[in-house]
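JOB MANIFEST
job_type = single_chain_structure
chain_count = 1
residues = 524
[input]
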Amino acid sequence: MLVGYVSDENDVAIADVAVELTGTDGVPVSCRSSASGRIDADVAPGRYDVVLARDGYGPKRTTAVAGAEPVRFRLLGERTYGFVWPKEATSGSTAELRVSCPRPYRLSLWRYGSAREQVAPLGMGEHEPGATAIPLPDGDVAGSGVDWSPGEFPGQRVVAPERGGLYFVHVDDDRGGFHGLPWIVSPSAPAAPVAVLASDLTWTAYNSFGGRSNYLNPAGLPPAPAVSRRQDLAFYAHPERGEWEDEHYPPLSLRRPDPDQSIPFAEDVDGPTTTRPGAHLAAADWRLLAWLERQGYGYDLYAESRLDRGELPLDAYRVLVLGCHPEYWTYGMFRQVRDWVHAGGRLLHLGGNGLNCEVELLDDDRMVVHNGDTRRLGPGDGPDWSRFTHRREPEAALLGVGYDQRGLLTAAPYEVVEPSHWAFAGTGVTAGSRFGERSLNGRILGGASGHETDKLSPHSPSGTTLLARGLNADGGGAHLVHVPALGRGEVVSTGSIAYVMALLADDVVSTLTRNVLDRFLADR
């Protein structure tokens, strides 16, 4: 009888897992998983206690009903995982560290600002050897989340520092292993004139822990795990189909590890990113925050989810800064920022592929992405491709630019179009000058216009001025624009995910951004 399949945290099949099933008669039946992770056992239908073990993975006990739907058994690889919960907090509040590590480990709290600096040691894992590795739940972990509270033992807790910003809890094991857990700390009350949004909703959309993200298996786990991710995942095997061909998608949980956000300890903020996700996720946000602090700008950092809950008092701020990749927003967030700008707010969008898709927060720890069937949208290289435009209203009507797929995964410098504009004061550029040639983007080389790029659209507000354009081939370059009057407010958008990665490396990019911030801060 087929009892189920066994896979790891990435939903890849695990072969040769020792499986023991014990029914109500108390007689154990043993078998092993096949190359596809399939578990077949000579048992009658009914409920069984199940034990699974395999070298390289944490063993566990679970239960299963044989004769029903095949069970998706999950084993966790012997490596460190964890997260801080909640992943964002206000100063003075308390969060819990939820860590699974197969070896003894030490915890410490670090702030990632102008440099990486240690704030405090947080102690060690407080359990016996072997008890610090916590089993992975069965089923769709990406949707259900991971409840890694340590049972009857008190969890390791941490109080959010008074100084807000981007923090990481470092987990160092006794064999030299390292893993960083991101934590967004916001002020209990506004303390600076600038608010910065960290893209925790976008982070969640890209988080594939559990074998599913908004890109890998977005419509749900398949009936059986992958054997070869390259061959079996539609993202790789059938790229011509696109990622999204369903009307509705199951939730993604915020309450799970997000390994892509860990920044290797050897990576310096003044050096290039060293991981594939770093160029557009937390490591890129660190470069932005480091630049702000070195330039002397005070800022308050907030998670996007806090804005959705109405816990970001926009009226207390002169400027709102969006980072390199705020792709996934709720409609409530969009309305709040749109209304704030129309009432006189200043918005600086330093990214690309911004506000491209609507998400909905079901509760504190689950998010539904409203991709829809993208085959029904406009052409892939046109201004109507955006899922947000299709479902709600054009993001270009707020940002001045909208995403299209030209320029995807390329990079190039910008070319100046309007050198007399105040944004270029003190840069010495002329029409046709190039800037943004130097970048800390270690993934996509070539310049500050790239990775994904936004451009002027039929939906751009009247009066939107093109200041510079990226030199990416085939019209794929980013459009850096100024919207001088959006109601009583004002917007500058850079149109490029890669722009932030040039802030610490390119003098013109730095000066231009400083000119915009100085004007926005003075013009109230």
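[summary]
The mean pLDDT is 94.
The CA atoms of residues 134 and 474 lie 50 Å apart.
exit_status = 0
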